[in-house]
Design goal:
The complex is a heterotetramer, with two copies of chain A (284 residues) and two copies of chain B (247 residues).
Chain A: E1 4-5, H1 8-15, E2 21-24, H2 33-41, E3 47-50, H3 55-63, E4 67-72, E5 76-77, E6 81-82, H4 84-92, E7 99-102, H5 105-116, E8 121-124, H6 132-135, E9 141-144, E10 151-156, E11 162-171, E12 176-178, H7 185-191, E13 194-203, E14 213-215, E15 222-225, H8 243-252, H9 256-268, H10 273-279
Parallel strand pairs in A: 1-15, 2-3, 2-11, 3-4, 4-7, 11-13, 13-15
Antiparallel strand pairs in A: 5-6, 8-10, 9-10, 11-12, 12-14
Helix pairs in contact in A: 1-2, 2-3, 3-4, 5-7
Chain B: H1 6-16, E1 23-26, H2 30-40, E2 47-50, E3 54-55, H3 69-73, E4 77-78, H4 81-90, E5 96-99, E6 103-104, E7 110-111, E8 114-115, E9 123-124, H5 131-137, E10 140-144, E11 167-169, E12 173-177, E13 183-189, H6 194-199, E14 206-214, H7 219-237
Parallel strand pairs in B: 1-2, 1-5, 5-10, 10-11, 13-14
Antiparallel strand pairs in B: 2-3, 3-4, 6-7, 8-9, 11-12, 12-13
Classes of the chains: A alpha/beta (284), B alpha/beta (247).
C-alpha cells in the first residue's frame, strides 16, 4: 500500500538489477541524476536504457559501461552539441557495443502511452518518407486503418521493468506530486512494472491543487528523499537548471580520459548525492 | 549599428516570415531566437509551442534546453509532452514548424541522424527528435541552416525527415520549392552574389528568374535580437548553487 | 486569435446548424445545460448528438426532436433510473426515429482520444465476448497487433463538428480553465472542428496553477458568460449538483404530456438561461 | 438493531469481500454503498476509483451520480476519464470491479442494454457504461443483484459484458463459479432456504455440497451503513439555489 521510504542506495539496490530495462524520465526538467549516479556507483551492467532524450546522465551511464542497449529519440546535449560518450559507444564501441532502438519524439511518446494503457502497440501518422522504419524494422511497422484504409505506423509498447522519476514532493502516504514540465513522465510511470521515485522533500500534506499530476502512493514501490536529486537538471520551485554545467560537460566528456577522471572523482569517489553536490561545487 | 553578421541576417530573415498570430512549433537554437525576435517585434501574438509541453510561452531569455524553467513559468499552459505531438501537431493545429539539420538535399529532405552508414556511422548525430512529424504535420515548414557544400548535399546519408519545406533560409539567402519540389534560390541578402550562394551549395542550384532583394536588419530588429542574446548569455553563464536546497 | 465573446444565443446561432454532429461534454460535472436549452429554443434539427452519458440535457434535446442520431455509452439518469425521452425515441420512435451508435465508456474515450490526436481510429482491449460488436459492426472492428499477433478492437475517431463545454472561468484572451471532474472534455475539445465554451465568469487573470487544464484561447471559436450555465449539473467551486432536480426529472419526463408542458414553460417559454433559472426556482 | 433488510444483508455481504488495501473500481448504487461501508469498517485503506476520474476518494456521503463534487473534493487525485480506463483498468491496476445489471445468466454474463431485440427493444436500458472493460480487466469481478426469475435468466437478451465473475452476491445468498464456469450456490443468508434461492432463479441452479453460513450484519455494520444512507438521503434531497452565482 504505502511505498517503502528508503535511502536511495537501498532503493536502487532493491529494484535496479543487471539486465533490466530501465527508464529514467523527465524532459530536461526533473531528470533523476542522483538515481543515475547511484546506478553507476553500484556498477549495474547490461541495462537497456530507455529515455526520449538521453541527456548527460545517460552519457555517464553509457560511458561507465552500464548499458547494453539504448531506446531513444534525441541524443544530444541540448543547445550545446554532442553527447560524446554516446557517440563514442556507437562510433567506436567504447567501452562496449551499444544496441540502439531509435525513434522520433512522437514515436517514443506513443510507445510509452501504449505501455501505460496496457496495449501491445500504439499508432501514429509518422515516419513517412524517412529512413527510420527501414533502419528499425523490428520496432516500426505499417498498419492499415480498418475504417478508412489509410496506412499508418504502428510501434510496440514500452513497458520498462523499472521507471525512475524525480519529483518535487511526496507525502507520508507516498503520493507524489510533479509540477512544471513533465514530458512523458506520466506515461513512463504508468507503463512501468516498478516505479521508483526520488523527491526533493517529504511533507505531511501535498497541498496539490485539484487536477494536479499526482501519482497515488500505492503505485510507487520506493521513495527516496534526495534534495537536489535532479541537479544539474532542475526542480521547478527548488533550483534552476545549471546551464553552465551542461556547457562545461562538453569539455569533460570529450575524451575518455577526462570523462573517466571526472567520474572517478565526482561519482565513484562520492558516497551519495550530497557528497556529489559538494564535490562539484553545487553546495558547501 | 549598420554592421551585422550573416547569422543575424539569417535570424532576422526567418523572423520576418512569421505572421502575427501564427502558431509556431519552436526548436532550440536559431528557430527559438527567430520566433522570439518576431514576437518581440512585429508579431506580439505569435503562439510559441515548445515540444517540452509549454504552450503559448513568452520567455524573457532564450532557453538553452527545450525545457528550461523559463518556458514553463511564462507559458499559458504546461501540458504532457505526448499531447503536444497528438493534440497539437498531429491534429493539425500548428501553422509553422521550424527545423534545422546537419544535411539538406535539393528537395528539402533533412538528415540529423548519422554521417556515414547507419549501422557504422562516422559521426553519430543526435537523431530525429520532433523533426519527422513536424515536417509531416505543420502547415508550413521553415528550415534554417548555414550553407556549405558539406551540409547542402547531393545525397543525404540518412533521411531523418521528408522534404516538405516552404522556405530554406540560409546565411546567404532564401530557397523555395519550385513546381516540381526542387529548391530554387529566390532571395539573396545584401552584399551576397548568386555565385557565392551557388558555390556554397553541394548540388547545381537553380536560380529564380527574378531574385527578390532582402532588406538588411533594421536597427530595431538588431537591437532587440542583440539585447535578447546578451540577456540569454548572462543567464546561461551563471552557475547554480543549491545551498538552500533541502535545508 | 482571441475568441468571439458572444451572448449565448448568438454563439449557438453562429455555430450549431441543422444536421451537424455536436458533442456537449462534461461527465456529470460541467454539463452545458444552458447551451443545450438554447439549441432547443432555436429549434435545431437533425443533429447527431455525441456524449458518453446522454443525461437530462440529451433527454430534452431528443424529446424536443432536435436529434436524428445519438453516439453514446450510457444513457440513464444517474442513480435514479431511465431517461424516459431517450427510451421513448428508441422504443416508440417518438417524436421521431433515433439512430444509435453505441459503445462502452472505454470505447467512447478511445474514439474521442483518436479524434483529438488526428488519427482515423483508436484501439482498445475491449468488447470481447459481448454482443456490442455484432450490434454495431460499422463502428467496431477487429485489428491485429503487427508485433504480437494479438487481436484487439479498433474504433473510428470521433471528430464533432462542434464541441460545447462549460467551464468555471475564462480570461479576456479567451483562455479557459476547467477544474474538477473533467471526464473526456479535453479529448472532446481537441477532437472538435469548432469549440464553443460557456463559462461561469470572465476574469482579468485566470490564476490557474501550473499544469492546470487550460484550453488556449486561440483554439476556442466563441465564449459566452453564462452564470449557472451547468445547472442542474454543477460547477465545482460555484454551485453543487441539484440531485433533487435529477430525481424530480424522472416524474417530469415520464409522459410525453408532462415533458412537453415542462419544456414549453421552462425552456421554450424562457428567453435565456437567467430566465430559465428563475422559472425552475433556482434563483429569484 | 437485530432486524435488518435483505438489501442491507446484501450490501454487508459485498462489503465483507473487500480486503483492506484493495483497489476497487466502484459503480454507483449498491457497489458504492458496499465499498464505502467496507472503507468505514474493516478496510480503511481501500482505494476507491470512480470512472469519473476520481482516484483514492473518501466521500462523506454516497454520491447520487458517478461524478458528484463530493468525490472530487475527497479524492487523492482527479484525472481525465480516459486515463481511468487506460492507465488503471486496462493496464491491470484494478483489483476488484463491481457490476450490476438487469439480467445475469448462469455463467455470469450480464445484460444492461435491452430487453427484447436490439433493433426494436421492448425496454431500452441505459447500456454498457464501463461494464465490458471492468469485466475484462479487473482482477476480480463481483456482481451484486437482487434475485428474481425475471433477472436471473436462462438466456440473456443481449450480452453487455462477458461472464468472468468471482462472486454473484444476491439478496438471498452468494453464487460462485464452479470449475466449468457455471455459477454454484455456495452461501445462503440466515433465514433463507436453498429452495427459496432456487425458486428465485430462472435456471436450474446448482448447489454446492456444503453451503457456508453467512453471519448476519453486526451492529456496527448496520449502524455505519444506516448512518451513511441517512446522511446521503438528506444531502440528495436538498434543492440547490444559485442566488449567489454570477452576482
Amino acid at each position: 500500500m504505502i511505498p517503502a521510504f528508503l535511502p536511495l542506495r537501498d532503493a536502487i539496490a532493491a529494484h535496479v538489477r543487471d539486465g533490466l530495462t530501465v527508464a529514467l524520465e523527465g524532459f530536461t526538467h526533473l531528470i533523476p541524476f542522483a538515481a543515475g549516479h547511484e546506478i553507476i556507483r553500484q556498477r549495474r551492467r547490461d541495462l537497456t536504457l530507455v529515455r526520449m532524450t538521453p541527456d548527460l546522465i545517460y552519457d555517464q551511464l553509457i560511458g561507465m559501461g552500464c548499458a547494453r542497449a539504448l531506446v531513444f529519440s534525441w541524443g544530444g546535449n541540448p543547445g550545446v552539441g554532442s553527447l560524446h560518450r554516446l557517440r563514442d559507444a556507437i562510433e567506436q564501441q567504447w567501452p562496449g557495443p551499444l544496441a540502439i532502438d531509435e525513434h522520433s519524439h512522437a514515436g517514443m511518446a506513443v510507445r510509452y502511452a501504449a505501455g501505460a494503457a496496457g496495449l501491445p502497440f500504439g499508432i501514429l501518422r509518422g515516419y513517412t518518407g524517412t529512413d527510420l522504419a527501414a533502419a528499425n524494422a523490428a520496432h516500426i511497422r505499417p498498419i492499415t486503418c480498418p475504417f478508412t484504409g489509410e496506412t499508418l505506423t504502428a510501434l510496440p509498447a514500452l513497458t520498462p521493468d523499472v521507471t525512475i522519476l524525480h519529483a518535487q514532493r511526496a507525502d507520508r502516504e507516498g503520493n507524489v506530486w510533479l509540477r512544471g514540465i513533465v514530458g512523458a513522465s506520466r506515461e513512463a510511470a504508468m507503463a512501468a512494472r516498478t516505479l521508483v521515485v526520488t523527491v526533493e522533500e517529504v511533507v505531511d500534506a501535498l497541498d496539490a491543487p485539484m487536477n494536479a499530476f499526482v501519482i497515488p502512493g500505492w503505485q510507487v514501490a520506493a521513495i527516496s528523499a534526495v534534495p537536489g536529486g535532479a541537479y544539474p537538471s532542475y526542480a521547478l520551485g527548488h533550483y534552476p537548471r545549471d546551464n553552465a554545467f551542461y556547457q562545461a560537460w562538453d569539455g569533460i566528456a570529450r575524451t575518455r580520459e577526462s570523462f573517466t577522471a571526472w567520474m572517478a572523482t565526482h561519482v565513484l569517489g562520492t558516497a551519495d548525492h550530497a557528497a556529489f553536490l559538494r564535490s562539484v561545487g553545487g553546495t558547501g | 549599428m549598420s554592421a551585422y553578421t550573416s547569422d543575424e541576417m539569417m535570424t532576422v530573415a526567418a523572423a520576418r516570415r512569421l505572421r502575427n498570430g501564427a502558431v509556431c512549433f519552436v526548436g532550440i537554437g536559431l528557430p527559438s531566437a527567430a520566433c522570439n525576435l518576431a514576437r518581440l517585434t512585429h508579431a506580439p501574438d505569435l503562439v510559441l509551442i515548445y515540444e517540452s509541453g509549454t504552450v503559448g510561452t513568452r520567455p524573457h531569455v532564450l532557453p538553452l534546453s527545450i525545457g528550461d524553467g523559463e518556458l514553463a513559468e511564462t507559458a499559458r499552459s504546461v501540458i504532457p509532452l505526448p499531447e503536444i505531438f497528438t493534440h497539437y501537431l498531429q491534429r493539425g493545429r500548428v501553422d509553422v514548424g521550424f527545423l534545422g539539420a546537419a544535411q539538406v538535399d535539393r528537395v528539402g529532405g533533412l538528415n540529423s541522424t548519422v554521417i556515414g552508414p547507419y549501422a557504422a556511422p562516422q559521426v553519430r548525430l543526435p537523431g530525429a527528435g520532433g523533426a519527422p512529424e513536424i515536417a509531416a504535420h505543420a502547415r508550413e515548414v521553415l528550415v534554417v541552416m548555414k550553407q556549405s557544400t558539406r551540409t547542402f548535399v547531393e545525397r543525404l546519408d540518412f533521411r531523418t525527415s521528408a522534404g516538405r519545406v516552404r522556405a530554406l533560409i540560409t546565411d546567404l539567402g532564401v530557397m523555395e520549392p519550385g513546381a516540381d519540389g526542387e529548391l530554387v534560390l529566390t532571395q539573396v541578402y545584401a552584399g551576397v552574389t548568386v555565385e557565392q550562394v551557388r558555390a556554397a551549395c553541394g548540388w547545381p542550384l537553380r536560380v529564380a528568374a527574378r531574385i527578390a532583394p532582402v532588406a538588411p536588419p533594421t536597427p530595431e530588429e538588431l537591437a532587440v535580437l542583440r539585447d535578447l542574446q546578451t540577456r540569454t548569455r548572462a543567464a546561461h553563464a551563471a552557475r547554480v548553487r543549491l545551498d538552500g536546497v533541502g535545508a
